[in-house]
Amino acid sequence: MSSMQSRSRGGQARKPLTKTLLLPMDRSSANKRSLSCHLALAACRDGHGNSHLINELMHAVYLSWYLQRAGYGNLPPEQFKIAEYVVENTLAHAHETGQWRIASDVISDFETLLSLYDAQLASARLHEVLEAERQLRCFLTGKSDSPISISP
Question: By the number of CB atoms within 10 A of the CB, which of 52, 54, 99, 120 ranks highest?
Answer without folding.
Answer: 120
